UniProtKB/TrEMBL annotation:
SUPFAM superfamilies: YceI-like. Residues 55-81 are annotated as: Disordered. Keywords: Membrane, Transmembrane, Transmembrane helix. The chain crosses the membrane at residues 12-36. This is YceI-like domain protein. Residues 66-79 have a biased composition (Polar residues). InterPro entries: Lipid/polyisoprenoid-bd_YceI, TTHA0802/YceI-like_sf.
Amino acid sequence: MAAKPNARSRKTTALVVAGSIFIVVAVLVAMVPLMLNLFGGGGVKTEGIDAQSVKPASTDIDGEWTVTNRPGTNHSSAGFTFDEVLPGERRTTSGSTKGVSGTVTIEGGTLTAGEIEVDMTTITSDSDVRDNNVRRKIFLTDQYPNATFQVSEPADLSGVPADGSVAQVELTGDLTIMDETNEITETFDVARSGDRLLVAGDIHVNRLDYGVETPDFVAATIAEEGEINIRINMGK
């Protein structure tokens, strides 16, 4: 007849099991950032105006300008930048799209009207997994495919030089994301380059103001504060 395990044997077995569970959990926690890195890095950010590519203006600033999507260093682009909060790590990630359209009107050196629309369904980063999460779980693009910025106050652009220098102009307008609208005021870079008008800037936002909730990710959450990045290239 087999002998029953004594108390010391049972205690040793329990300690071994507990130790094994602890090791497995520790390894999984340590691997989470590595696994997430496999799904993508810092993303693709819409940068500001490349001043080295700007040349002196060849047309008047007044008129109706239309966003174009022609290729080049300062092509039209828009997107987001937020921090991902991971176990033991915080990193910045971005997504962007060239799906930008719209028009602005300038009369007597004053911006009198303007509306820019961004196709949120085409935002991409450096990871298909992240892109699907951004579209389907964060911005809900099936339901809210577009975001818009509409100028709500006139802005003086008469000081934007014709020599290709980049000026700073304060713009006020209504930013709409997921059908939630908030008025924002930000300083944008503006440049006249050949027959083009360039505008770029970072709009600081709190995602909760636009009903953007953190999806139920296993290992990552998204910081509340972030940026909407935009660069538009317009012609007449």
